[in-house]
Predict the 3D structure of the following.
Amino acid sequence: MTIDEFKFMVAVKKVLEFTHNGKTYNLTYDTDEEGDYIAFGRLYDTPERYRSVGALLNEVKIDNHFLREVLQNL
């Protein structure tokens, strides 16, 4: 998956679930008192909240690789 494809999926709020090295990750969306956010984390764990796709791509690390690098293998 390219970064542009990923950004489009986030823009249309498509729920994503993928497996990397035997671990399943989940991407969802919600709203709190501060506004909309993206929730990302391992399936069944408490997800971290990100306010933008840029923050998500630049802060999330999976097995010592940024999410933007892992996306290329999905």
DSSP finds three helices and six strands in the chain. Strands lie at 16-20, 23-32, 35-42, 48-50, 61-62, 65-66. The mean pLDDT is 95.
